[in-house]
Every structure is written in structure tokens, then in C-alpha cells.
């Protein structure tokens, strides 16, 4: 059971990165806050280095604020990659390798940014190849 939990955590971390990639293609706007989630690829392979990035702009300028990144599978949150991290220059990112347990799975990374009383969300979906 411990091995399954450890692998699920690693898979979730990678999924978070993937969600960021998809969100980049469909940014969300709320109160002048625009959030974009993107990743290196939406179809990474097991063992690939992969970067998930969340960017936020408020009134066209990089936003200061906090970011939360959740990994969703089947519409349910399975892991939180960032719970209350700070944006640096309107940006947050993480790089990691996709574990074998992720093979054949689809995940969505959902990034939520809070900045000056505004909240915006973006998402990115990934399907991991073998």
C-alpha cells in the first residue's frame, strides 16, 4: 500500500505539471486577473523531464500573489502540488520526471491564483505515454 501511495504522489506531481501546460491554451480572467497554466507537452512520455508553469497577470502586468496547484484525475483532486506558494514576477513553475506509474493516465493540473482580492483559475490536461 505504501508503494502505491508513493507512486500516486509522484504521478500527481507530474500531473500537476501537465495541467499547467493545458491551462496556457485557455487562460481564465477574473477581476482583471488572467491566469495561464502550461506545460512542456500535453503528451509526455514516462521518464521525460517536464515543466509545469503557472503565470498570472493583473491589468496586463505580472501579478504578485499566491498560487495553489491541484492535480485532478476523473474530476477529483488527488494531490496538491503547491498549497500557498508565492508567485515570482507573476510566475511559478516546477520541473520533474514522469514516473512509470503515470503511463497511460490522463491528469489535469488546475492552478488557482489569488492576488489583491481577485482569484483566477487555469487548467492544463496531460496524457502520459509509455
Shape: elongated
- The separation of the N and C termini measures 23 Å
- In CATH terms, what is the architecture? Sandwich
Number of strands: 9
Structural class: alpha+beta
Integer count of domains: 1
Low-pLDDT regions: 14-26
Would you tell me which CATH topology applies? Immunoglobulin-like
Description of the molecule:
- By secondary structure, the chain is an alpha+beta fold.
- It has one domain (2-127): Immunoglobulin-like, CATH 2.60.40.
- It contains 1 helix and 9 strands; from the N terminus they run αβββββββββ.
- It has one helix spanning 2-23; strands spanning 28-30, 33-39, 49-58, 61-62, 66-73, 76-86, 91-97, 106-115, 118-127.
- The two termini are 23 Å apart.
- The model is unreliable at 14-26 (pLDDT under 50).
Write a brief caption for the model:
The protein is of the alpha+beta class. The protein has a single domain (2-127), classed as Immunoglobulin-like (Sandwich), CATH 2.60.40.
Task: Describe this protein with a few key phrases.
single chain, alpha+beta, Immunoglobulin-like, five-stranded antiparallel beta sheet, four-stranded antiparallel beta sheet, 1 helix
Topology:
Elements (H helix, E strand, L loop, with lengths): L1 H22 L4 E3 L2 E7 L9 E10 L2 E2 L3 E8 L2 E11 L4 E7 L8 E10 L2 E10 L3
Amino acid at each position: 500500500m505504501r508503494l502505491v501511495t508513493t507512486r500516486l504522489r509522484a504521478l500527481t506531481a507530474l500531473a500537476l505539471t501537465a495541467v499547467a501546460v493545458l491551462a496556457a491554451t485557455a487562460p481564465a480572467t477574473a477581476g482583471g486577473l488572467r491566469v495561464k497554466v502550461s506545460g512542456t507537452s500535453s503528451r509526455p512520455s514516462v521518464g521525460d523531464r517536464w515543466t509545469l508553469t503557472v503565470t498570472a497577470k493583473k491589468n496586463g502586468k505580472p501579478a504578485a500573489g499566491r498560487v495553489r496547484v491541484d492535480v485532478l484525475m476523473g474530476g477529483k483532486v488527488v494531490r496538491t502540488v503547491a498549497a500557498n506558494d508565492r508567485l515570482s514576477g507573476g510566475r511559478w513553475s516546477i520541473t520533474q520526471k514522469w514516473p512509470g506509474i503515470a503511463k497511460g493516465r490522463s491528469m489535469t493540473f488546475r492552478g488557482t491564483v489569488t492576488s489583491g482580492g481577485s482569484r483566477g483559475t487555469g487548467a492544463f490536461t496531460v496524457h502520459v505515454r509509455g
